[in-house]
Amino acid sequence: MLKLGGSVVTDKERPETLDGPALERSAAAVASALAEGALEDGLVIVHGGGSFGHHHASEHGVTTTEGTDEIGAVTDIHGAMETLNRFVLSRLHEQDVPAVPVHPFSTAYRDEAGTLHLPTGQIDAMLEAGFVPVLYGDIVATAESGATIISGDELVTHLARALGADRVGLCSTVPGVLDEDGAVVDRITSFEDVDAILGESEATDVTGGMAGKVRTLLELEAPASIFGLESIDSFLAGDAVGTSIE
Ligand SMILES: Nc1ncnc2c1ncn2[C@@H]1O[C@H](COP(=O)(O)OP(=O)(O)OP(=O)(O)O)[C@@H](O)[C@H]1O
Ligand SMILES: C=C(C)CCOP(=O)(O)O
User: Fold this and answer.
1) From the CA of 201, which ligand is nearest?
2) What are the pLDDT digits (tens) for 227-237?
3) 245: which of 145, 183, 192, 217 fits an S-S bond (Cβ 3.0–4.6 Å)?
4) What are the Aspartate/glutamate/uridylate kinase domain coordinates in residue numbering (predicted)?
5) Would the pTM of this model clear 0.80, i.e. be above it?
6) Alpha-carbon distance 227 to 235, whole Å?
7) Nearest CA among 74, 72, 135, 68 for reference residue 108
């Protein structure tokens, strides 16, 4: 599983603005890894919302817990994420990566307890066919709340469990989780280890930023890491990179 953070693929400070060079760098790294046979068991990509999803979600006051039943909010948020997904797919196709879209708004929902339901049989079939499924943080119908945001990080955790992922990597704009001196923390085994150093995202973010990431990944059985774009080739090659969350 590879998550491309929204802060990587977009300029999170400017609404609906891609970070073209970072997106191309990410696509090239995936293409190289596929060509070198480093991903024989398959690859699932999830990308974040960046300045597409977070911008519109913030404008409409929608978060992972604050829902909406306004069709304008749903179409603005999902529409922006579909647009970003098309840009991500096109960059992957330019590198001959057989990427295919899986749209969370149409395939997932939350129940009354807020539990995410997302079938993965179609993803298994896509992987068997040699495709690279690409999902993304989105808005999903939510029992008794209209629709709420699903973060890419939550999707990664759900999919890693359902698909039995060997490894999970979250690529962001920082080289890992940083301590108070700005050094990369090698390993995190409990949230209390780093609670004090986890701040907010620098830009608009409605899904919990780095603290949300660490909390989500700690729930995983599979080995997970948070790393910067400069380490994406090493992660895809199977090397230890950035901060390991265990
Ligand atoms: N201790 C920390 N170490 C590293 N980054 C931190 C820390 N505390 C807060 N941050 C912030 O968290 C940000 C990364 O979280 P963010 O959610 O923005 O990433 P992302 O996954 O790329 O975005 P998105 O949620 O849109 O996919 C960093 O850019 C940094 O500003
Ligand atoms: C805000 C939206 C729609 C997506 C949030 O996903 P994330 O950027 O992975 O947290």
Assistant:
1) 1
2) 999 999 999 99
3) 217
4) 2-219
5) yes
6) 8
7) 135
Please name which of 6, 146, 136, 137 lies closest in space to residue 66, comparing C-alpha atoms: 146
Euclidean distance between CA atoms 136 and 184, whole angstroms: 27
What does the alpha-carbon distance between residue 62 and residue 182 come to, in Å, rounded to a whole number? 32
pLDDT tens digit sequence for 43-67: 999 999 999 999 999 999 999 999 9
Place of tokens 């999903």: 140
- The Cα 34–Cα 23 span in angstroms is 17
Q: Domain residues of the chain, as ranges?
A: 167-246
Q: Give the residue among 140, 149, 171 at the shortest CA–CA distance from 46.
A: 171
Stated as kind and residue range, the H or E segment containing 127 is helix 121-128
DSSP-assigned beta bridge partners for residue 135: 46
CA distance 228 to 192: 23
Comparing C-alpha atoms, which of 44, 57, 77 is closest to residue 161?
Answer: 44
The total number of residues shown for the chain amounts to: 246
Q: Could you tell me if the CB of 209 is within 6 A of ligand 2? A: no
User: Which strands, in side-by-side order, build the sheet including 138-142?
Assistant: 116-117, 109-110, 138-142, 146-150
CA of 148 to the centre of ligand 2 (A): 11
193 phi, psi to nearest 5 deg:
-55, -35
Please tell me whether residue 47 adopts helix, strand or coil conformation.
strand
One-letter identity of residue 196:
A
